[in-house]
Amino acid sequence: VAIPTVTTLAPVAESTTTASLIADTDDGCFDAERPLVGDGFLGRFEAQDSDSQALAAFNWSETGDCAAVTLSFSTEAGEPAVDPPEFRADYLRHTAVVRLELGPEVVDAAVSDQAFDTNLLATAYVAYQPAAEALVVDIHLARGSEVRVRPASSPARIILELEADGRPVAGSATAGEAVIVFAPASSTPPLVVQGYGRSGIEISASFVSSTRAIEDTISFEPSPTRWTTFDWTIRDFQPGPVAIRVGDAAPIEFISQ
């Protein structure tokens, strides 16, 4: 069930731990207050006078086909924040990523990436997005899932809830030491290659098809974290085999339609 793009999330005050969020019963992982979503827009939260200045930590738990991830935040003084920050959440199913774009009040992060290595959860990356001048948190899933997200206050948190849905994802991200590259959402031109690389460096990128070969350099702006996002657009090529390589990540190969 798709949630309309006007969905605005309201915070709740609670002291529940991440582990206690999951109730793996015959009726599903979580309460039915809001449906879980299989792809696309999840919601947005507009903060009022949030004291969340930095992403402080990830906490997570998993039971069977259910998982929950909690992002906690700190103030400028390093104390636990009370009110969650502004954010927008999207499920990019074609790359098995849940993306949280944080509001302008969040300017730092104590963690740049987090390995989960569980049944449902793979890794999280915190990156600076120059176009939005904002930090984004990408949570990479290990399995196709339905998800939902909600803010919580006292202390400030963003809570992501997941339940495996048995459906495959169309692609995934490939990771190197210096760059993470997403599988493109479309196999037809214009082709947008997205991902993130180490802050402040330059890497080489190449695109090869039956009718075109491109060599390019991608530069990554400085970031409060280890990572900076990038978008590399490729136009005007004919259908057929395609190979994309960015930095030290494994090449992405597919047949363009």
Helix share, percent: under 10%
Task: Give helix and strand order, one letter per element, not per position.
Answer: EEEEEEEEEEEEEEEEEEEE
Distance between the termini: 29 Å
Shape assignment: globular
Radius of gyration (CA) equals 19 Å
Largest sheet features: 10 strands, mixed
On the 0 to 100 scale, the average pLDDT is 86
The fraction of residues assigned to DSSP E strands is over 45%
The number of helices is 0
The number of strands is: 20
Q: What structural category arises from helix and sheet content? A: mainly beta
Would you write up a description of this structure?
- The chain is mostly beta strands and 257 residues long.
- It has strands spanning 12-13, 40-45, 54-63, 66-74, 87-92, 97-102, 108-109, 113-115, 121-129, 134-141, 145-153, 157-164, 173-175, 179-182, 191-198, 202-209, 213-219, 227-234, 240-246, 252-256.
- It is globular.
